[in-house]
Amino acid sequence: MAAESTSDSSSNLRIIVQKNPSESQLSELGIKSWPKWGCSPGKYQLKFDARQTCYLLRGRVKVYPKNSSEVVEFGAGDLVIIPKGLSCTWDVSVAVDKHYKFDSSSPSSSSSGS
């Protein structure tokens, strides 16, 4: 039985973690000009109303997406894409310092017709 993932369930809200992106990719994205955000160790309930791309300068995080048994871990040096609409708990074990950018809510032209 083929499980088609066409449903709009939260299981489609996948966090993408890219380990050690290249310097050229980081400068292409313009990460150093993005705003910064930090938090101390602890647990945080977060809801993302827009897709966020972030680059961790330091820290260690376990993310527990709501209604999912999946755990996503990332830390310093990782480039992370968090999908729009994700509700999750961040379990921060090492204080986080990151650059971040929210995607503007304009429709993406690159994923049309799929």
UniProtKB/TrEMBL annotation:
Q: Which SUPFAM superfamilies match?
A: RmlC-like cupins
> Which Pfam families does the UniProt entry name for this protein?
Cupin_3
Where the record annotates domain (S)-ureidoglycine aminohydrolase cupin, the positions are 26-100
Query: What protein is this chain from?
Result: (S)-ureidoglycine aminohydrolase cupin domain-containing protein
